[in-house]
Amino acid sequence: MIINLNSWAEIHHATRQLPPVMKIELVRALLSEIQPDATVNTKTAADVLLLTGLSNEELYTLTQMMLPDAQQDLLNQLLHKNHTEQLSTDENREIDELLAEVQRISLIKAKAIYTLQQRSKQNAVSQTKMMRLLTDYVIAHHNLYNSQ
């Protein structure tokens, strides 16, 4: 099947329709095609991922972020309904918005974990706590995507 995508918006829309596993495969494929460029400042690119200006306590708090219970319940209901019947246009919009919020929270959590990890390298902070946070993060995402 050939798809003609003529703009960034069309490409972005098309990739948002992919299942999470395929999104990961796409990102890996795109990253593997990037050739090192002498004009790219890699330190700046890595710094974009850091949440500077926050204390370790604030970062630990961010790693515990979750959807509010009411939104999580609604998301679970919509995911279940999506398995058993077709969602309405409004329900599709709502599930897309909820999943986008889950992705935003996941990005914030990942950035917080990454920032803590970078600080731990510099400050020799406990690696055990970092591994527990990373494990919790992976388990939570595994459970979320398996519930779909």
Shape: globular
Low-confidence stretches: 35-42
Report how far apart the termini are. 26 Å
Helical residues, percent: over 70%
The radius of gyration over CA amounts to 18 Å
- Structural class by secondary-structure content: mainly alpha
Number of strands: 0
Q: Could you report the average pLDDT, rounded to the nearest whole number?
A: 76
Q: How many structural units, i.e. domains?
A: 2
Number of helical stretches of at least 4 residues = 7
Instruction: Please indicate the percent range of residues in DSSP E strands (runs of 2 or more).
Output: under 5%
Helix/strand order? HHHHHHH
Largest sheet: none
In short:
The chain has 148 residues and is mainly alpha-helical. The chain contains seven helices and no strands.
